[in-house]
Amino acid sequence: MLKNIALLGSTGSIGTQTLDVVAGFPKDFRITYLTGHTNTTLLLEQVRRFRPRGVVVFSDAAVKEMKKNAPPGTEVLLGEQGLLDIVQRQDVDIVVSSLVGFAGLRPTIAAITAKKKIALANKETLVVAGEIIMPLVDKHHVDLLPVDSEHSAIFQCLAGELPNKVDKLILTASGGPFRTKPMAELQQVTLEQALKHPNWSMGNKITIDSATLMNKGLEVIEAHWLFGVPPERIEVVVHPQSIIHSMVEFVDGSVKAQLGIPDMKIPIQYALTYPSRSPSRFPRVHFPSLGEMTFFEPDRERFPCLQLAFDAIKEGGTMPAVMNAANEVAVAQFLQQKIGFLDIPRMVRSAMEQHSNLANPSLEEIVTTDSETRALLQSQKVS
Ligand SMILES: NC(=O)c1ccc[n+]([C@@H]2O[C@H](COP(=O)([O-])OP(=O)(O)OC[C@H]3O[C@@H](n4cnc5c(N)ncnc54)[C@H](OP(=O)(O)O)[C@@H]3O)[C@@H](O)[C@H]2O)c1
Questions:
Q1: What residues contact residue 268 under an 8 Å CB cut-off, 6+ apart?
Q2: How far is residue 102 from each of residues 10, 24, 135, 239, 242, measured CA to CA in Å?
Q3: From the CB of 99, is ligand 1 less than 6 Å away?
Q4: How do the pLDDT tens digits run along the chain, 383 residues long?
Q5: Is 309 within the bounds of a domain?
Q6: Does any ligand 1 atom lie closer than 6 A to the CB of residue 12?
């Protein structure tokens, strides 16, 4: 049966790759809504090609441009309210949540309460509000399917297994572009160097998060909520080849791993077609030419963000939201070349140290914590 998709963040890295996947399945999927933020030119191209019923933009100028240039009859909606509106509509079966950052939180919640199947790329949603999201997922009986390659891997390794037979989850990390760079050189790395990920082509924010290892920290928290495994039983191992996407170790010592080439279209397709698997033309792993696969302990001293994420989830409450907001502000400032690379963990730590944690926060308290943390960091100099 044809499934209707609302694709949030269609102009981004996951968004454009989702459209590539969908284009290969014209009988299975139809795009009914697309959303962008700043890249109206690409959004318009996508609208012309995929002919959605509606499109969400974020400025009055973009509304004007869309209304003038989109195919006649395309509904144009504005801002977060537009996102919250489309994800609840009858002509949406699957919501692909591929916004970046905290902006994904409310639309994802709206999609859950509207009982849509969700393909979740936006890990920040679970990082800041996993404690609220997971009970909602249970209450509304929705499928929350991971798009992140590590979580897709774990999800596949867990198929057919009993939760109480899992000893630990092992998340693999490429180690990023500075895996072997000495500490003394890290503050001087350039934006260009930080944006050069060795294995994956991704949006700017997650690429910097991968270089600081904050991405792996966010993924530990995401895995904790998705799979109900405590952080002490989630291990991170650096695997520079990014062929093993993650693993699960069971109580008998047996380890299951999921492998594939580093291409996000594979987990995106799996989330869309789940519980089925569909053939694909993606390149395959050719083991003889791999040579070797190597594994290392992550260096938590050179990459303090990983430890900060473990600390944040151990504290729980509003602390992960503080960590996430501080990281978003710091990464944005690094992208604008206002701060150095090591200032990112400094800003995150400083925000966490200044925060009085609040246990069992409501959604509004999480939203307030996010805004307050952003305001605090904007008003302070890096110490
Ligand atoms: N990229 C990957 O390979 C990958 C892998 C695993 C997980 N993820 C996760 O997937 C999510 C998306 O990552 P990405 O790399 O695709 O990011 P991206 O390339 O930066 O794309 C983000 C998308 O969200 C839109 N957007 C940005 N800020 C927004 C806001 N405030 N309100 C509404 N829309 C907004 C952007 O619109 P404009 O471009 O029009 O401004 C774009 O469509 C992140 O949570 C990331 O951690 C990504």
A1: 14, 17, 18, 21, 96, 119, 121, 147
A2: 17, 30, 19, 28, 27
A3: yes
A4: 899 999 999 999 999 999 999 999 999 999 999 999 999 999 999 999 999 999 999 999 999 999 999 999 999 999 999 999 999 999 999 999 999 999 999 999 999 999 999 999 999 999 999 999 999 999 999 999 999 999 999 999 999 999 999 999 999 999 999 999 999 999 899 999 999 988 888 999 999 999 999 999 999 999 999 999 999 999 999 999 999 999 999 999 999 999 999 999 999 999 999 999 999 989 999 999 999 999 999 999 999 999 999 999 999 999 999 999 999 999 999 999 999 999 999 999 999 999 999 999 999 999 999 999 999 998 886 54
A5: no
A6: yes
| Closest-lying ligand 1 atom to the alpha carbon of residue 122 | 45
Give yes or no: residues 155 and 291 share one domain.
yes
Looking at the structure, tell me whether residues 118 and 165 fall in a common domain: no
Ligand 1 pocket residue status of 216, Cβ below 6 Å: no
Residue 311 falls within a domain, yes or no? no
Domain of residue 294: give its range: 151-303
Tally the domains of the chain.
3
State whether 161 and 261 are in the same domain: yes
Q: How far is the CA of 10 from the centre of ligand 1 (A)?
A: 8
Ligand 1 centre to CA of 253 (Å) is 37
Q: Of 102, 128, 146, which residue is a domain's last?
A: 146
**80, 163: one domain:** no
101 and 66 within one domain = yes
Asked whether 30 lines ligand 1 (CB < 6 A), one says: no
Both 130 and 185 in a single domain? no
Which string of b and e fits 254-288 if b means at least 16 CB within 10 Å? eebbbebebbbbbbbbbbbbbeeeeeeeeeeeeee
| Same domain assignment for residues 136 and 181 | no
| Protein residue whose Cα sits closest to atom 34 of ligand 1 | 37
Determine the angle formed by the axes of helices 105-113 and 123-139, rounding to 10 degrees.
20
3-state secondary structure (DSSP) of residue 80: helix
Which of 11, 13, 102 to probe ligand 1 with, by most ligand atoms within 8 A of CB? 13
Indicate the residue type of 97: S
The answer to whether the CB of 148 is under 6 A from ligand 1 is yes
Q: Does one domain contain both 128 and 168?
A: no
